[in-house]
Amino acid sequence: MRNAEEKKLSFRTVIVGVIFCFISYSYSSAVTTDSLKLINNLRLGIETHYGYIYPHHSSIAYSLQSRISGLELNLTTDTYGRGQWDNLYRYPRMGAGYFYTSLGNEDVFGKAHALFLFMDVPFGSGQRKFSSWYRVGFGAAYLTKKFDVEKNPTNMAISSGMNMYINFRYTGRFRFDNRNEVSAGFGFTHFSNGKFATPNLGINCVTVHAAYFFNLVSKRYQRIAIEREKKLEKHNVELVLSGGSKTDDQISGNYYFISTLVIDYKYVPWMKYSFGAGIDVFYDQSLGPNKVGDLGGTYSESDLYQLGLHVGFYSRYSKLNILMQLGTYLHANYYKYTRIYSRIGIRYEIYNNLLLNFSLKAHRAIADYLEWGIGYRL
Questions:
Q1: pLDDT tens-digit profile of 192-234?
Q2: Sign of the torsion angle spanned by Cα atoms 194, 199, 201, 202
Q3: What angle do CA 73, 20, 82 make, to 5 degrees?
Q4: Of 95, 84, 116, residue with least CA distance to 18
Q5: CA within 20 to 30 Å of 11's CA: 4, 21, 154, 361, which one?
Q6: Is the CATH code 1.10.10 the one for domain 235-377?
Q7: Range(s) for CATH 2.40.128 in the chain?
Q8: Within the chain, which residue ranges are assigned CATH 2.40.160.20?
Q9: Highest mean pLDDT (candidates 46-55, 87-96, 291-300, 365-374)
Q10: Whole-model pTM?
C-alpha cells in the first residue's frame, strides 16, 4: 500500500512540475514593460484528428484493432512584440487546449483526455491569406485504461492513469477574413508516464487534422518594433546535475535511484537556435538487478555507471530552451534495448545563468526515466 501511495505521489509531482514549467514559460513570454495584455485576437479552434498508433513494439501491434480518431478544442492569442523573442519567432500564437482521442483498442488502451499549453510558430508571415506553422505542445493526459495483471494484462504501453502529453505538428492555414480561418496538417503525439510505473512502452500517435477557427475577440494590438538586444555569446558550456527514480521492467514495484551529470558545449550562431555536443555520465541502480535477471551471475558497482556522448539541437524562446539530443554509450557494462539513446526536455533560466532542467531519456521511443535537475551556464 505504501509503495502504491509513493507511486501516486511521485507522478502527481511530475504532472505538477510539467504544468508549472510551462505556465512559467507562458507567463515570462507574455510580460510587457507596462502590463499583461494576454487577449489579442482570441480564437476558438475546433479540430478533428484521424490516424493510427505507431506500433514501436510487438505487444502494441498485437493489441491494435482500428485507426484512431479524436477531437480538439483550443484557444489561441496572438503575440505582437512584447519582447524581442516575439519578433524573432515572427509573432507566434500562444494557446491552451483539450484533446480527446481513441487509442486503437478501447478494451485495452481505452481513450485519452489531455490538457496542454502550446506555441504555434509561422514559417513566414502569419498574416498572409495562406501560411504554414509548426507547433510544440506539452501537458498532462489521463488515459482511461492501464495495465492490470488480472484485468488488463495485454496493455504493456501504459500502467498509470496520469501521463505526460507531448505534441509536434505542421499546419497549413487559410484565412478568409479577420474572423474566420481553416487549417489542415499532420502531427505526432506521445503519451508516457516517464517510467514512474511499469510497464511503460508509451503510446505514439501519428495523425492528420483539419480545423476551423473563429475569432471571439477581434481586438488587435499594433505590432511593436523592438530593438533587438545584443546577441548571445556564440560559445557556452552548460553543466547540469539531475536525479530521480524509475521502476524496473519486471512489474515488481521496486524503485531505483538514477542520476545524470551532463556537460554540454553549445555553439550559438543565431538567437533562436543552437547546436552542440556533450558528455553524459549516468548512474542507474536498476542496471544491476536487470543485468542479473537477463544474463545471470552477479553485478558490481561499476555496472551501474554508463558513459555517453550526444549531439543536440536547441531552440530558445526568452528564458526557455527546448532541447533534443541523440547519443550513444561509449562505455556500458550492460544496457537494455540498444546502444543509442535520446533525450527531449526543457531548461529554464531562473536567475543569471542558473538553470532548471526537466527531460526525458528514452531508447527507441521507449521511456527510460525522467531527469529533474539544476544546472549552470558558463
A1: 988 888 888 899 999 999 999 999 986 677 676 666 555 667 8
A2: negative
A3: 75
A4: 116
A5: 154
A6: no
A7: 235-377
A8: 2-217
A9: 46-55
A10: 0.81
